[in-house]
Specification:
Chain lengths: 279, 452, 322
């Protein structure tokens, strides 16, 4: 019995230790980036893992002041925000109808979204470009909204569809009995209940828009409409890279994601507790 | 009936979304165009290139010269509106360029690699510049011999160079060589092999190379070796499908020689996962005895390396092959990324575009190039010798000691060949292809481009 | 209309609404269901956008796949030649094999580890659950470029911390150029991606576990390892729905993985880490064989669609067993 207890104690200790180690490894990238961004280029190239001795903040200033960086940052922030709003609404609507009703073409609609998950988007680059060109949709502030929405939707629809299925259908019934319209049911009852899954969708769809790369390159020519993912890559030139400057720019560029993450990760947690009560 | 309405509603909805967006786009675009059209005397010219602000800050001479050429052009021709689109290599310049090419939407002035030019020309997207050069003989005569080598496809010249480069410059640390008992750089290929052995035994990386992008071995290391084993006539015959082939004995011999060097540990162990910027550091740290990169790296060295390393650095290329002394004078060089003109420019655009090309090779730019540490394209260049860095002077001396500039297959042949060569040499480096198999693959890819 | 609903209310109580899981049951009509026109009104925007950005371009790509096309106006119709060539393209099949391997590693690694972690987090003796959950999600919000670059440096032969650590612990024999050895390159590329996304699935799974009543889990958690096994049996069926989604998202995401591999190895050494999306990109944007690349894209889409649906069917079958 005691041996068994010791073994179990050890098992518990090891599991805790492994989990802590893993968690530690997860914050490592950001610490490494901060450390790297505070070095000079020479310092970094000599040893990319060493701790910085004289923090060199100039990199951050240079990054932010580099031409067009802030403009691109703002462009992406707007796109990201619009994408989040549209994705959440569309996913909620699509998820709700697919999970609740057996309408005609439901399978087809569902498959449509599944196909979006597996399609290699890069192979659509040229056709989408041609299509946008033919319709005169290139090079506008909203050009990227539709592609981003389309890229974010499949995962979002999957998640909401699955989540809404766990919400008891009696709620719908009661709502209809009280004279709720479908619109009201969606906005007043279903949507608030989806908050944990919505939080995840908010983070993911913002990131999709924020990090998306080849489409923003190809569909936009105007320098003032470029996105942050392009601005970041501009720091690498053909024959020379200033890594610390690049890191500083990357750090500034992940700030919004970080903030959104910090806000909404609370939401995920809150939602979970609600979910537990509901269950 | 019901079903039909449903389908109809889906289609209508989709059409509405599309139509709505297309509709508002139309009005906006029209507004823009009419705004620009108000000033009808202005010629608009678009150009796409890689000279980003960041590259200029990093001292990249090719970007600096593009920037200068654009500025000069703008001040000289104020009635032409030159619209630049600048995208760095990392930000997907090639992806964008090829998408535009696919859509037949190339800008008016295009910065492209020779391998792309061939394909663009076949598809009728860029101009043959031969008539332009003939009509402007005076300007054409300012170029040094062979400056259109990379852009010459049969009778056609498809581009104008920005600068001139040597693909396969070896930068070596004479101090390390001396420490390993070698007073001078190996004089032939056998000695080079011995040197690699000795350097390796002494714990140095013989030749640091960053082949993650797959081009370093294929377009920098290999051409240097290949053209010490083969004559330029052979290469021209290969290029023009005139009976010569990569499977010829002398070619296979060259590939086999590289393979032998690889087996001796010529490269750093992680050659295939590092990029050139990262391997330069091995040289700066004194861990590598040599590193290989194009001539552009002279300016990187000057900017980045310590004085001690700079003082010990010498510049050369692969040594000649015993018994093939007649090929001694060959050096693989070229122009790399050049500028092409879109097919179908309006008359005023054409004139403006040619003026830009002239501006790009103007004497002032030539001076800028040389003084910035790059080879110029003109026959005669005025420059202030005192402004040249000693290392660049070493490079110029080395370069001038060669009398025949020959082309680089990876730059001049088709994109299909390029891809096969990039991947093929990497595969040979990890032992999954033998030299003979590689030669066969290269030839196959080269032939496949002919069929098109 | 309102009257309609009331009369059918009774029917509804007999047949509760269900999602796709209701497959196989006799067809019924949810009486609460708004008329078709309204459903399509609601769905027209998401579906319309989708048709416009994904379906129409895919049809275009399908069209190009019958041409020899290197960009520009000149297309030459060659029928099925591209598809025939694809069948004989060794690199395509190698990339296919690599993709499958990569995908299996991802699904097992990401969802598998996330699932095990989730089980641990249901146990009282595991500390700092809230902290873990938050921190572990963190890497998944960082762009692939950063993750790739960082791991490239971790793997670095000379100064990377991995080899440094091995040297320090006397495991010199293990030191390797991790991304350069064709035998392990695929694994070396897989590890960072697995590491990055464990947290993503963890959050999804923990969300589902939170809906399981506490007392059920407490019964299982009497003691360490045995309890672990038991909770495995109890938990899986209860979170099967979300687990299924995780598996599908992971499968689909990994099947088209591109960025990480591009940054770390560019598909090399040789073709050792070349996956389908990378080879497809290579074909169209390096070799400029747009027609051939389109044919490849069509095949990739068909294969991945088939596999995804197959997996889904398989899992649904399994769900019915529970």
């Amino acid at each position: 019995m005691t041996i068994k207890n010791t073994l179990q104690g050890m098992f518990k200790f090891v599991v805790n230790a492994v989990l802590l180690l893993f968690s530690a490894s997860c914050i490592f990238p950001i610490l490494w980036m901060v450390n790297s961004a505070l070095k000079t280029s020479n310092e970094f190239m000599q040893n990319s893992m060493s701790l910085t001795t004289h923090p060199y903040f100039q990199n951050f200033i240079d990054a932010v002041q580099s031409s067009g960086f802030l403009e691109c940052f703002l462009n992406s922030a707007i796109l990201g925000f619009i994408n989040v709003v549209l994705t959440v609404i569309c996913a909620l609507v699509a998820g709700f109808f697919i999970s609740r009703y057996n309408f005609r073409f439901k399978k087809a609609v569902y498959l449509l979204f599944v196909s979006g998950m597996v399609i290699p988007m890069l192979s659509l680059l040229i056709p989408v470009f041609l299509q946008f060109k033919a319709l005169g949709m290139l090079d506008h502030r909203w050009t990227l909204i539709l592609p981003y929405l389309a890229f974010s939707l499949p995962f979002a629809v999957m998640l909401t569809e699955n989540y809404i299925r766990t919400i008891p259908v009696e709620l719908d019934e009661a709502a209809y009995m009280e004279g709720c319209s479908t619109f009201k049911l969606l906005t007043k009852i279903i949507f608030p209940m989806c908050s944990p899954i919505t939080a995840i969708i908010v983070i993911t769809s913002f990131m999709n828009a924020w990090n998306e790369f080849p489409f923003s390159l190809v569909l936009i020519n105007d320098k003032s409409l470029r996105t942050i993912s392009i601005a970041i890559r501009m720091f690498n030139s053909e024959h020379a890279i200033n890594y610390p400057l690049y890191m500083a720019a990357l750090l500034v560029s992940i700030l919004p994601i970080l903030i959104i993450y910090l806000i909404f990760s609370k939401q995920i947690m809150k939602g979970m507790t609600v979910g537990a009560v509901k269950g | 009936m019901r079903k039909r309405t449903q389908i109809l509603s889906v289609v209508l909805a989709a059409a509405m979304v599309g139509g709505m967006l297309a509709g508002c786009s139309g009005t906006e675009k029209d507004a823009k165009e009419s705004g620009a059209g108000g000033d009808s005397s202005k010629t608009t010219l678009t150009i796409m290139h890689m000279g980003t602000d960041e590259a200029i800050k990093n001292g990249d001479i090719e970007s600096i010269m593009m920037d200068k050429a654009v500025d000069n052009f703008k001040s000289k021709y104020p009635d032409v509106e030159l619209v630049e689109e600048i995208v760095s290599q990392e930000a997907g310049y090639e992806t964008k360029l090829k998408t535009l090419a696919a859509a037949n939407e190339l800008p008016d002035l295009i910065m492209a690699l020779p391998s792309m030019m061939g394909s663009f020309y076949e598809n009728g997207q860029i101009q043959d510049l031969t008539p332009v050069l003939e009509a402007n003989q005076e300007w054409a005569d300012t170029f040094a011999d062979g400056m259109f080598g990379d852009y010459t496809f049969g009778d056609h010249i498809l581009g104008v160079p920005r600068c001139s480069i040597v693909n396969h410059v070896i930068y070596y640390n004479k101090d390390i060589f001396a420490k390993c008992g070698m007073d001078s750089f190996p004089a032939n290929e056998q000695e080079f092999k011995e040197a690699v052995k000795t350097l390796k035994e002494n714990g140095y990386i013989p030749l640091a190379t960053g082949n993650k992008g797959k081009y370093a071995i294929a377009s920098q290391v290999m051409p240097g070796i290949l053209m010490k084993f083969n004559s330029n006539e052979w290469y021209e015959d290969v290029k023009n499908y005139n009976g010569a082939s990569f499977e010829d004995e002398s070619s296979v011999e060259a590939i086999t020689y590289l393979k032998e060097l690889m087996d001796l540990g010529l490269f750093n162990e992680d050659v295939n996962s590092l990029d050139p910027v990262q391997v330069r550091q091995m040289y700066y740290d004194g861990k590598a005895a040599m590193y290989i990169e194009g001539s552009w790296s002279v300016s990187n060295l000057i900017n980045e390396a310590s004085q001690e390393i700079l003082d010990n650095t010498e510049i050369t290329v692969f040594p000649p092959v015993k018994g093939k002394e007649e090929l001694k004078g060959q050096i693989v060089g070229g122009q790399g990324w050049g500028i092409s003109l879109r097919e179908g420019l309006a008359d005023d655009q054409q004139e403006a575009a040619v003026n830009f090309l002239k501006e790009m090779s103007a004497p002032e730019i030539q001076t800028l190039l040389i003084e910035g540490g790059s080879l110029a394209t003109a026959k005669e260049v005025d420059y202030d010798e005192s402004k040249l860095d000693p290392l660049f002077v070493k490079f110029l001396d080395m370069y001038n000691s060669y009398d025949k500039i020959v082309g680089c297959p990876e730059v001049q042949l088709s994109t299909a060949y390029m891809d096969a060569s990039y991947v093929g040499y990497q595969e040979m480096s990890i032992g999954s292809l033998t030299p003979e198999e590689l030669a066969a693959k290269l030839q196959e890819a080269h032939e496949s481009a002919k069929k098109q | 209309m309102r009257k309609d609903r009331q009369t059918q209310g009774a029917y509804d109580r007999i047949c509760p609404a269900g999602g796709l899981a209701s497959k196989g049951r006799p067809k019924y009509k949810n009486p609460l269901m708004p008329p078709g026109r309204r459903i399509f009104g609601y769905l027209s925007i998401p579906v319309g956008v989708y048709l416009f950005i994904v379906v129409v371009p895919t049809l275009f790509a399908f069209g190009y796949s019958f041409f020899e096309w290197s960009g520009g106006p000149g297309k030459k119709f060659i029928g099925l030649d591209n598809y025939i060539q694809l069948l004989h393209d060794k690199t395509f099949w190698l990339s296919f094999k690599n993709t499958m391997l990569f995908t299996v590693l991802m699904v097992a690694g990401q969802v598998g580890i996330a699932f095990i972690f989730t089980l641990f987090f249901t146990m009282k003796w595991v500390k700092f659950v809230e902290l873990h959950r938050r921190v572990m999600y963190f890497p998944s919000i960082i762009a692939a470029v950063v993750i790739g670059l960082m791991w490239q440096l971790i793997y670095n032969n000379d100064f990377g911390i991995l080899n440094h650590f091995l040297r320090a612990s006397g495991l010199d024999g293990w030191i390797k150029p991790w991304l350069d050895d064709p035998k392990i390159a695929m694994l070396s590329v897989a590890v960072p991606v697995i590491w990055q996304f464990i947290g993503y699935y963890l959050v999804l799974l923990m969300g589902a576990v939170a809906t399981i009543p506490k007392d059920i889990l407490e019964v299982a958690e009497i003691d360490g390892a045995t309890g672990f096994k038991r909770s495995l049996y109890i938990t899986i069926p209860l979170i099967w729905d979300i687990l299924k989604i995780c598996l599908m998202i992971c499968f689909a995401g990994s099947f088209k993985a591109f960025d990480h591999i591009m940054v770390m190895t560019g598909g090399g050494p040789g073709r050792a880490t070349s996956v389908l999306s990378l080879y497809n990109y290579d074909t169209s944007f390096v070799q400029m064989k747009m027609g051939y690349a389109s044919a490849m894209a069509v095949v990739i889409l068909v294969v991945s669609m088939t596999l995804t649906i197959g997996i889904q069917r398989l899992m649904e079958g399994k769900a019915n067993d529970h």
